[in-house]
Specification:
With 443 residues, this protein is α/β, with parallel strands linked by helices. It has 14 helices and 14 strands. Pathway: Protein modification; protein glycosylation.
Length: 443
């Protein structure tokens, strides 16, 4: 009897110790979560300001949600983006290096917007640059087809949370943007248990939100991304073919359209008198980070005169946009019609020219042999030129890229990619000249 009583006391003692330990651990987790939440919120609010192009976001259909409102929303509204995608299926590229997932997430009003507008914006991005999409979509009031490159579980996790965040915060993302995904064959994501991070998100700071999410990437993932080429042309083709319109405006994710461009193009393009293979160039400028996004061409010209704006890549690599002939575009502004119209024709085409343009969706595809940096866009524009396209520069529409770029020494890996693509271009050039039966002496 005494042994039984001692045994019960021992069991009760062990159970008490166990429950006390569990209680302490649970209390610690709750405290740690609260501390981390406060640290995250401080990191977002310290020395931060809203993105420039989001200053007028309240003009949109739905204003940005504040953090407290986001926390109180029903749980079913937090369904993560891309939660039903299967990485066991997909569309391979020709060399089976990348797997594509068309229409991984369709904007709520993407089809309706495609019917109502004549032109679709197609763009591409890696995960770490995706915050620019908030500016692009705010400026472009029409359908947007976005291709995103994702390598592995961590980046897919980041993509899920950030796209969900953008769709909850901004109606113009939720309504107009359709997403496609490309993954490398040796870095296919795997769905797993992922925590809810929305309590630390702030709709006012998209860039800072994404930068915080990117911190979960481990050093191996970052090293892998630096070592392996970014398949820009695969993504451009993926985004372009996701558009449902006859005209496509193909850009990079950090190229921000001018105000009211969709409406102006809707009125111009149906009446454009093009006899044969026409592309409409949208001039691109670099804007000083201290400046406010120009709402019109006169405002852009004021920034230009103050040295706060200049032609894209003017200091880094002038031939990138040189043939656009910005001097004529800037000169043709006195009593200029506010409607979109042709400013002038590109007559001094030079190799390495790579404008952002609007054209029918029958332009040559971007050659997917060019991977990484160098000869990705200009090779496609070169084929357009050889095949007989004429480039018309439009006004008063324009695009902007944030930051006045300075020429810096390129990293070794980027120069290596550029040299490799230069060799590939020699073969590409001979193929293009043979295909269109041009003399090899032509530029």
């Amino acid at each position: 009897m005494r042994k039984l009583v001692r045994f019960r006391r021992w069991v009760l003692f062990i159970l008490t110790i166990f429950l006390t330990t569990i209680n302490l651990l649970w209390t610690y987790c709750l405290l740690d979560t609260e501390i981390n939440s406060q640290r995250i919120n401080k990191s977002f609010n310290r020395n931060t300001k809203p993105l420039v192009a989001i200053e007028s976001v309240n003009d949109a259909t739905m204003p940005p949600l504040n953090r407290s409102l986001l926390q109180k929303m029903p749980k079913h509204n937090f369904r993560l983006a891309f939660d039903n995608i299967s990485f066991e299926t997909g569309r391979w590229d020709n060399l089976r290096n990348y797997k594509m997932f068309d229409f991984a997430l369709i904007g709520d009003k993407f089809i309706k917007s495609s019917h109502e507008n004549i032109v679709c914006l197609a763009t591409q991005s890696s995960v770490e640059r995706l915050y620019s999409l908030t500016q692009v979509a705010h400026q472009w009031n029409g359908p947007i087809s976005t291709a995103v490159y994702v390598a592995g579980d961590e980046e897919f996790f980041i993509l899920q949370h950030f796209v969900t965040y953008m769709r909850l915060c901004f109606s113009f993302i939720r309504d107009n943007v359709t997403f496609h995904i490309a993954v490398p064959n040796n870095k296919e994501p795997v769905h797993g248990q992922i925590p809810n991070l929305f309590n630390s998100f702030d709709c006012q700071y998209p860039e800072q939100t994404l930068r915080h999410l990117l911190k979960i990437r481990n050093p191996d993932t970052i090293r892998w991304r630096l070592k392996n080429e970014y398949p820009q042309n695969h993504l451009r083709n993926l985004a372009r073919k996701g558009c449902q319109n006859k005209y496509v405006f193909l850009t990079d994710i950090d190229i921000i359209p001018s105000t009211n461009m969709v409406s102006l193009l809707n009125k111009f393009l149906p009446s454009a008198k093009c006899s044969y293979r026409c592309a409409y160039v949208i001039p691109t400028f670099e804007i000083d980070n201290r400046a406010k996004f120009p709402a019109s061409k006169p405002e852009l010209m004021r920034l230009y005169r103050k040295g706060l704006a200049r032609p894209f890549h003017e200091k880094v690599f002038i031939y990138n946009q040189y043939a656009t002939n910005f001097s004529i575009w800037l000169k043709n502004s006195t009593n200029e019609d506010e409607r979109a119209h042709i400013s002038h024709v590109v007559t001094n085409f030079e190799f390495l020219y790579e404008p952002f343009y609007v054209a029918f969706d029958d332009v040559p595809a971007h050659d997917e042999r060019f991977i990484g940096y160098g000869f990705t866009r200009n090779s496609q524009v070169y084929e357009m030129y050889i095949s007989g396209y004429t480039f018309f520069v439009l006004s008063p529409v324009f695009t902007c890229h944030w930051g006045l770029q300075q020429k810096k020494a390129r990293p070794v890996w980027r120069e290596q990619q550029n040299n490799l693509n230069r060799k590939r271009f020699e073969m590409f050039k001979h193929e293009i000249l043979a295909r269109y039966k041009k003399k090899t002496t032509r530029k």
